Input
Amino acid sequence: MNFLFSLLRKIRSLVQTILADRKRIISLLVVGCLLFVGLRSASKYFTEPSAPPQDVKVTNITDQSLTVSWVTDKPCFGFVFYSPKKYPFVILSKIPLLPTFLALNTPFEFFKIAPDDHASFSTTHHATLKNLEPETPYFYRISTGYHLYKSQVTSHKSQVLPSIKTAPTLPSIPYPDPIYGQVVLERDLATPVKNALVYLSIYGANPISSFTDEKGAYVLDLSNLRTGNLDQIFKADLNTEFNFSASAGKLGTGRLIIKRSLMEPVPRILVK
Output
């Protein structure tokens, strides 16, 4: 896998060098052969793992960032291509392998790419879009392998991806308020679940999310909670009911509902 990524980067670097010196035709032919061999070797890797996104959620919305998360039936790498303009996606959808090729440190500025935050081959995906403009709608597509999706699968039916728009800028930045928890398998109450998507929903607040590490641990910053219209910080008191949910792909899902007054520490979320 690393070899393929490295090969594609080297090919792109050689192409840029060759285009600056038109006399090096022989080198161009060599690069063409390398590109053919490299893409032929990579084609099976990039095509077979591709899977349409399911259960797409938009969380952690601020004035400068937001998170798009989803699950897939098969393990794969995930990317989110995003832009305030729609026209870049017309080009991306027409050329096979172009999304994956451009995801390798693309130099282009007419769209940006957010990889999985956990940067691993997985059936769960959590990508944070950064450096956004306040109160701005964005167009986006989800990429797995060389496929670029503008819709998700819901109950075996295709459904358009949820729209995304950043929040207004707040007059002041709240202090961090992290809470920590763990996701484990219900069958033994001990096995940690890696890369599980963890969501926190509270009535009247916009949802926030995170993902688990190798030990099944996660952290959620309550200072990122905003009211439903996103123009104010949501302040939870001791009687506020917290609704946690975890999605771990084929390992299953879990749920925990608890008042904040009982969250010292946060009980484990059990996946089954």
